[in-house]
Design brief:
Elements (H helix, E strand, L loop, with lengths): L23 E2 L2 H10 L2 E8 L2 E12 L2 E7 L3 H5 L5 E15 L7 E15 L3 H15 L12 H5 L1 E7 L2 E7 L17 E4 L21 H4 L3
Antiparallel strand pairs: 1-8, 2-3, 2-5, 3-4, 4-7, 5-6, 5-9, 6-7, 6-8
Length: 221
């Protein structure tokens, strides 16, 4: 999965951008860091010759991505057979870049694109690990503080696995990039930082009044 003796994933044509190639990285640590910060991905595949892209939850365990789905989804059922060619993308937006010209406006971001064959997870032990990871990816510590899925719920839940092999990250973390002839124009230019902030937890109305807020929720920012 990685270049022998290095901390990089193997570079492949599908994970090598044709524009702004200098923004790309195949470093395992950088890719893991982006994946660990997010929890929403877009899963792309082809059904009856037409592209489909689904937003869904994911979790990283080592060099594997686990993606949540439903057993009622026809495309995901196909992953239980010979596997399903997919493309998974994760994007974190860090800033809106405003320039003096409309054309040069941009976005600061960190993204990961992974290609490969997704396969449905059927082994009970691996499914348990994957389902806990999916819960903890969004809210660290939550999997151990809720009722596990019962047999009926497990029968309705699909988990697909994608080994990280053909994968790369791309990052833009720059300021405004105006053309030299536009620098004296009377327009504001700069970066508007963007970040995800978690609000104060709102308890369910049916919760016992003396039920304390779990410590792992108090630590979220």
């Amino acid at each position: 999965m990685s270049v022998d003796g290095t901390q990089e994933f193997t570079r492949a044509p599908r994970t090598t951008p044709t524009r702004y190639r200098e923004r790309a990285t195949w470093e395992r640590e950088a890719i893991h860091a982006i994946l660990d910060e997010g929890y929403l991905c877009h899963l792309g595949f082809v059904v009856d010759g037409a592209p489909v892209v689904l937003p869904t939850l994911y979790a990283r365990v080592g060099d594997r991505l686990y993606v949540h789905g439903s057993t009622g989804s026809r495309p995901l059922r196909g992953a239980a057979d010979a596997g399903m060619p997919v493309c998974v993308t994760v994007t974190l937006v860090d800033g809106l870049v405003l320039t003096r010209s409309a054309f040069n406006h941009s976005v600061n971001f960190r993204s990961v694109v992974a290609h490969g064959t997704a396969r449905q997870v059927t082994d009970p032990a691996e499914r348990a690990i994957a389902l806990d990871a999916l819960v903890n990816q969004a809210v660290p510590g939550r999997a151990g503080d809720c009722r596990p899925a019962n047999d009926k719920e497990l029968a309705a839940t699909a988990v697909v696995r994608l080994d990280l092999d053909e994968v790369s990250a791309k990052v833009r973390a720059d300021g405004a990039d105006d053309d030299p002839e536009d620098l004296d124009l009377p327009y504001w230019a700069g970066v508007i930082p963007v970040r995800t902030v978690h609000g104060t937890p709102v308890p369910d109305p049916g919760l016992a009044p003396d039920r304390p807020l779990p410590g792992y929720l108090g630590e979220r920012s």
